[in-house]
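>> received
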Amino acid sequence: MYLLPTWCYFLWNLRSQSPGVHDQGGGSKSAFPIDWDNQQATCPQGAVSREWRPLRISGHDYIQVKFAKADCQACPVRPQCTTSATRPRALALLPTRELHEIQAHNRLDQTTEEWQRRYAIRAGIEATLSQNVRAHGLRRSRYRGLKKTHVQHVLTALACNIARVADWLDAEPRTRRRATRFRTLCSAAA
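>> returned
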């Protein structure tokens, strides 16, 4: 199994910004205690998982933990735990305890104000990269060699900045400034 260095998992463990059923209460993965030695997970209602098996999603290794259908069907908090009408709850865990703990720690950090401030900077950078990839074809280099590719990246960034300045100059001001007393006096005299 191929694993990345542990510092790479910071980037993979960013919490999804889209709201889901698991963000609304007891259904988040952190609410399920994991017993790595016995290869079991326990749901917040006390049910123990029935299956623990390897899983491969998009070329990445995970561990899939499934709960018994009978336990999930009779559960009073089922709507807060899963969106499926018929299937039981399943968890996809990272392949090792260490990686799972890194992920849990990183997700806990994401609730801090300092992390939110740092991520706001990254979000702005990602918007710029996305614009360059989508509008200016930054994903593929037209040239061979690092020097020519670097020139292409610099010119692409320049084109992006010029397009942004042009859009900024064309845009209507968002807020109108209050008229000065002198302007009000001139308008009244005219």
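>> The chain has seven helices and five strands.
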